[in-house]
Amino acid sequence: MKLADRIQAFVSLGTYLQELTAEEADRLSRLAQGRNGWFTPSNVRFALKAWASLLQPQNINKWLEAYNIPDEQEAPKHVGLVMAGNIPLVGFHDMLCVLISGHNLHAKPSSSDPLPEVLSKKLLEIEPRFASHIEFQEQLKHMDAYIATGSDNTYRYFEYYFRNTPSIIRKNRSSCALLTGNESADELKALGRDMLQYWGLGCRSVNKLFVPEEYDFPTLFRSLEVWSDVQNHHKWSNNYDYYKSIFLVNGEQHLDTGFLLFKEAEAFASPVSVVYYQYYRDLQEAEKLVEEHREKLQCIVGQESTPASTAFGQAQRPQLWDYADGIDTLAFLLKL
Questions:
Q1: Radius of gyration of the chain (CA)
Q2: How many angstroms separate the CA atoms of 86 and 123, rounded?
Q3: Fold category of 3-172 in CATH
Q4: How far apart are CA 202 and CA 16, in angstroms?
Q5: Whole-model pTM?
């Protein structure tokens, strides 16, 4: 299959996602939520719409123009992909990279996310020649390369298991925001999306705020009110009640919006329903704090005048060229 054919297949998949009927979107949402209680209909639709937008010709062409991709791989490699399932379709970008590069995909799906398999079936309807290049399986042995995403614990396992094979192995990351106190109400509302879209479970979710001394938290809390509906999700409210009780029983100082807890801490990865914050004296100190922990960070959200790399509201809207952990997946595949 030629590169142009592979590209066109994904463009057609994007068109399919754009033209999803309400009934079909509901069906996919129910399927996903039945597998994972955090995959609410609104989050599933958000993910589907995001991919509908990404799989447009202008986006794909802009992404691929930086690479020398062969029209066809003379000897396609077998690439094992261990997929994560913390947010809907989180593993789809790796699937796209493997198939666009012309290699063979052997994917171990996450039990938490059925959507990649659903979209792969649609892709096969669009382009049946992909049938010899896509396989979902529970065990990935004797692959030419591996891409695996997991926790810090599974990272050590993957690192040992794949030690003699070319691989990309990802572990836990989170994201932070660098606030100056000069943000507009709209920017703070957008920050709410960065924190609360996908319940804060993604590596691009903002779990930590760097704020100046004497920061005006009430202004932030007023802007976050538009996200107060999270309290209506039973899994969220259970986490909120649990951590609030822990903080109260232990006498730990915290701030409470009524649906989201804020706690001063140097750590980055906060539990569900909690956002950590840390004070800084000036932007130079803030930049130093961020740099010291950059290897743990996926996104740094903030205004252009700060060391931030991601604009408010854009953490959950990555482009095709925004690679997880900053590792160029497509470049890795093209070197195999």
A1: 21
A2: 23
A3: Aldehyde Dehydrogenase; Chain A, domain 1 (3.40.605)
A4: 26
A5: 0.94
